[in-house]
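Notes, p. 3: input format for complexes.
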Amino acid sequence: MHKKRFVDPFFPNRPVDDPDRFSGREIQVDEVADSLFQIANSNPKHTIITGDRGMGKSSLLLQTRMLATGDNRLVNKLDIDIGYDAFNYIIAWHDANYDQTPEHIVSGLLRDLEGNISKLFGKFNLELDLYGLKVGSSVQKEKTVADLVNDFCDIIKKSYKAVIDGKKQGIILFIDELDRVRPDSGIATFFKLATEKLSREGIKKVGFFCAGITGAIQKLEVDHGSVFRTFRDVPIPRLTKSETSDILSTGFCGVGFTFDRIVLDAVFELSSGFPEPVHILGSEMLSEASSKQITIETFNKAKKRVVTDVKKNKLKSLLEKAGYGKYQKILEAMAKYEGPYVPLDFISRHIGYDQKQFSTNISNLIERETITRVDKGVYAFVDPLLKEYIRNFGIINIKDNVDNDEQ
Ligand SMILES: Nc1ncnc2c1ncn2[C@@H]1O[C@H](COP(=O)(O)OP(=O)(O)OP(=O)(O)O)[C@@H](O)[C@H]1O
Ligand SMILES: [Mg+2]
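Output follows (407 residues plus magnesium ion):
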């Protein structure tokens, strides 16, 4: 069949940059806009965006960055008042990586800050090398967190003057993927000390905006109890039915396709509020469609292709990571359940064990990020497509008879 080529309007692999393609999240956008407003008024509201894996944290962080630097398209679309014509912050961004220490993060942020200030005001040297915070600067002995806080605040102070004199509103420091940082790295202590010191020294138009996976962020508090309570938490919930439908219809209409309403129901049921599978399914439906009308048959073909091809390897290794024996049985039971939120007694009945006999397995499955606890006694797959994978391929049956496996 000859098909006209077009740009795929779905993008499962990158955060939303186009505000028109950013669906829902009114409350969360309002909260980040308020944090930006408060910071501009010397009331620092450090903010952390939390949510499950793939829920849209980086997308909201990116939209916040655009808002902070004067792009009002999203707040205009949502009719949110930001208290100014536009924000005009100087920003810096760092994506945390595995095994990064607070020093890596500070160094990444400050290098970006230096570059961004230079772009605006001409060459600006924060003398990061003197502090040992420049790539390739002579290796110094490791700083303590307290030293790092002092250096960080020193450098921010230098930048702050230039920023405020240059008629900018202040400085926003973005850190994405904060969940990757190890809890014992000192990062929570760093935030606590640094935010207090800046405030004490009257540097109040500086704010941190971070994003990270819910459970992992709580773990960071091992280092410094409840530090993130001094942050404003902006939790990202699952998408509603209408937000999910919005992503699909905008995508389809943008390339001149129409669709049966039942397709929207089917995608919502399968994606259970996660945006990523909506994009994957949307994209596959467009490539499976035999006409410009997306039908439930198109959806079924796309669903099949996603689990047997597009995401097959990823889902397979997710299933392997879960563990064998009883772990697989639990997942098999969960896949049999009709809706996305599976009650514990359903699992119990299916595998024929008393709840107490597999509570450790449930905790381990949560720890391994195979399932999440939605509510007391209610669980869901972390990746909703895993359910469909198990329905297609079944569970892994080795060690079938070992029912006390890894207990
Ligand atoms: N509000 C939204 N509207 C439309 N699509 C969205 C929205 N939020 C996220 N997405 C899409 O969902 C996918 C995952 O989003 P994103 O990368 O922002 O999630 P994340 O929570 O940062 O994921 P991770 O836990 O992997 O870091 C991307 O394809 C993104 O484009
Ligand atoms: Mg992300």
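Residues 34 and 402 are 54 Å apart (CA to CA).
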